[in-house]
Amino acid sequence: MRVINFNPGPAGLPLPALERARDELLDFEHSGMSVMEHSHRGREYEAVHNEAIALLTELLGIPTSHQVLFLTGGASQQFAQVPMNFLTPGTSADYLMTGVWSEKAFEEAKYYGTPRVAVTTVQPDKHYTRVPHQDELRLDAKAAYVHMTSNNTIYGTQWHTFPDVGAVPLVVDMSSDFLWRKQDVGGIALLYAGAQKNLGPSGVTVVVAARDFIARGRKDIPKVFRYGIHAENNSLYNTPPTLAIYLVRNVLAWMKSVGGLAQIEAWNRQKAALLYGALDQHAGFYRAPVERASRSVMNVVFHLPTEALDAAFVAEARTQGMVGLKGHRTSGGIRVSTYNAVTVENVQALTSFMEHFVKTHG
Amino acid sequence: MRVINFNPGPAGLPLPALERARDELLDFEHSGMSVMEHSHRGREYEAVHNEAIALLTELLGIPTSHQVLFLTGGASQQFAQVPMNFLTPGTSADYLMTGVWSEKAFEEAKYYGTPRVAVTTVQPDKHYTRVPHQDELRLDAKAAYVHMTSNNTIYGTQWHTFPDVGAVPLVVDMSSDFLWRKQDVGGIALLYAGAQKNLGPSGVTVVVAARDFIARGRKDIPKVFRYGIHAENNSLYNTPPTLAIYLVRNVLAWMKSVGGLAQIEAWNRQKAALLYGALDQHAGFYRAPVERASRSVMNVVFHLPTEALDAAFVAEARTQGMVGLKGHRTSGGIRVSTYNAVTVENVQALTSFMEHFVKTHG
């Protein structure tokens, strides 16, 4: 029996994508071996690799100015790889600070150049409850790039409109909301996302970057860290994580089969409306700390009146087959992550439970 | 129907490890979700992670002076990560050149220090047919480390005895022969291996390193590249490739179940004896270019009298259900990779076919 999985990542994956993997795990397309036993240079795997790129390009409408890469190391490695490629000692980049992950990205950039904080919404208690407004940004027109985190899993905040950064290249860590909707990426110089939210298992990182931005990357760094080398080799410079990319292909094929990102977005907006609706209706019981305009569609964060009630909520939900609801250890409370594999029905089950819980414990 | 898979990597994996993955792919240990949908911070995944480390430690007899890490990026990333951690501008490391992979490792080290070629067995035609003898090494006692490649997949050469490098830390790229036998790793400062040969799918890199060597790593590099950070966090500094590590766990559990590395080594020696025996018996037809003492137990390389016969051999073997036999594109000929999932019976089928082929085409 499958549970209802509200994990923040690695997150639940769509059942059809997993079933497809299970059914052919020992014998991929009648080749007599698993997809993970195929050579990454063979036509069977290369077809999967290229189909994953083609599906992503189609679903997101990625323009020909941009290229899709499959790398490894997660967002954490990108925190270092971006400045390694685009900063030199003495040059700067602007960082928009909206949470712990922005902070980590900022720290790693210090080893390669001089990152600047162009804005922060940190509070005295070190938490964040909103993303900045355009007029708060103090941008440097000479920055090598502007770095931002599009969604902040821990705090449940999200940029619903991306900032105007002028002519400076925009670099976006989309790890925690990539593919929640169709989104124009033509104006983004480079985006990166660990797969383990909407896209697949952990172990593969998707990068979508402008070809002309990639071309400006430093050439005096190891080949394996140059975006340009991976771009020239279609992400086959070295052995890619073939099984993880195969699973990403399965998830993307599922997204297409259900109607693409327009349908995915509609579901995500329905799920968020259900959850925030329940919170607002019982605002005296459920406290949602995030500023309304910054509320995340992917991670809905709230607190019950006491920590004991937070714990009771998580425990009772578990008896109803709903897991992954405990808030991040630094924030406490409840976090409902509604990545793409979570259905509207799953969320309805949770909001019914929330109604019931407020009646019995409110 | 599963084929007989002689792929050089990603290589075939033991069927029981794959069947176990298939059987619980949708519902891991009755948790209601796939292992890849579990949080890397949850007790279910952490048990798998720690079991993989414990099994590897037990199978190889890793001493407490050493620690096991699970990283990503394959050997190619280690080519850069090792010098990033252990070289500074002006310091040198000694490289033992035995093939293309040693050459690539050497090139990446140039971005961090001054690597030296302490020996090379390259021939005028740029190929390699042997590993060096101890008395050929020109070692620098002040080197930060000595780097070597224990097995050379492309050329089919292997170090059967590791060189004496004195007090200088030994770093070994074991990507293509890790776990072919029980091996004392206490004298190795750091070894690394992409999983995709004897260990699991591509997408995870195993590092086994001396704790005191790790501690000497540079602190002025990004956190994500420091071995020390991953060691302190038991390879959970950031989200690890959980599915790949789970599969490594399955493969290690299989190794233990069949009798551990003593049994694995016995099978590997039998397989190599069968193949080299067939080559030597028909030395007029099958040409094995590798010097006898350097012959690899993992990759058996040979040529037929003509390229047309090489191609016919590969094509006819395929009709018998044997795949993955084509030599590397830079060397041509035939390459039989006999990683741990290849059985003695599989190799007997191939040597029977070789006998037949020499009779019909010799």
Describe it for me?
The structure is a homodimer of 362-residue chains. The radius of gyration of chain A is 21 Å and the shape is globular. Chain A is of the alpha/beta class. In chain A, strand 6 and strand 7 (157-158) form a beta hairpin. Chain A folds into two domains: 15-257, Aspartate Aminotransferase, domain 2 (3-Layer(aba) Sandwich), CATH 3.40.640.10; 260-361, Alpha-Beta Complex (Aspartate Aminotransferase, domain 1). Chain A has helices spanning 15-23, 43-60, 74-86, 100-109, 211-215, 227-232, 242-257, 260-281, 307-319, 344-361, and strands at 4-5, 66-71, 92-97, 114-120, 146-149, 151-152, 157-158, 170-173, 190-194, 205-210, 299-302, 322-323, 334-337. The two termini of chain A are 31 Å apart. The longest helix of chain A has 22 residues, at 260-281. Chains A and B meet through helix 1, helix 3 and helix 7 of A and helix 1, helix 3 and helix 7 of B.
Strand content of chain A: 5-15%
- The gyration radius over C-alpha positions of chain A equals 21 Å
CATH superfamily of the largest domain in chain A: Type I PLP-dependent aspartate aminotransferase-like (Major domain)
* CATH architecture field of the largest domain in chain A: 3-Layer(aba) Sandwich
Oligomer: homodimer
User: Can you identify the CATH class of the largest domain in chain A?
Assistant: Alpha Beta
User: Share of helix among residues of chain A?
Assistant: 25-40%
The rough form of chain A would be described as globular
| Average pLDDT figure of chain A | 97
The chain pair with the largest interface is: A-B, 64 and 64 residues
Q: What gap, in angstroms, lies between the N and C termini of chain A?
A: 31 Å
DSSP E strands of chain A, number: 13
H-E order of chain A: EHHEHEHEEEEEEEHHHHEHEEH
Strand order within the widest sheet of chain A? 2-10-9-8-5-3-4
Computed structural class of chain A: alpha/beta
Number of helices of chain A: 10
